[in-house]
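Minutes, project huddle
Topic: does the predicted pose make sense with zinc ion bound?
PN asked that the exact inputs be recorded in the minutes so nobody has to dig through chat later. Recorded below.
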Amino acid sequence: MSSKTDVPVSPAPSEVGADLYFRTQLDQGNFLIQRCTACARSVFYPRMICPHCGDDHLEWYAPSGKGQVYSTTVVRRKAEHGGDYNVALIDLQEGVRMMSRVENVEPGAVKIGLAVKAKVVDAEGGKLVIFSPAEGQQ
Ligand SMILES: [Zn+2]
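Predicted holo structure (tokens), as shared on screen:
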């Protein structure tokens, strides 16, 4: 499983909302987050203004995709609707937290602190960033 880490990134046109830019990139298979050029901290979810320092110069870049499970929940669902699934908050190495889910492992086996890796998958209504256990974890 390879992930894109050196996607050429062009600045978001100011007239395009940050959310829309994120979605457009994601639909092309590119998972991008933002970084503030003033305070150098990473930003997610997409915004126009840095939540850390208030600066409005945010640049897009491809994160490593590496993260750790911060919290995890099993959502119960009937087998005929696809069975139970996992919902997790993931802390990316870059210092941002995002809600997603961890796949390729039993929903209840996802533990806090588990090392995970992001990937972009097709889902209903467009592409989605999900996570699976990083190599070397069961
Ligand atoms: Zn900032």
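Observations noted during the meeting:
- Residues 66-133 form a domain with the OB fold (Dihydrolipoamide Acetyltransferase, E2P) fold (CATH 2.40.50).
- Residues 36, 38-39, 41, 50, 52-53, 55 surround zinc ion (CB under 6 Å).
No decisions taken; revisit at the next huddle.
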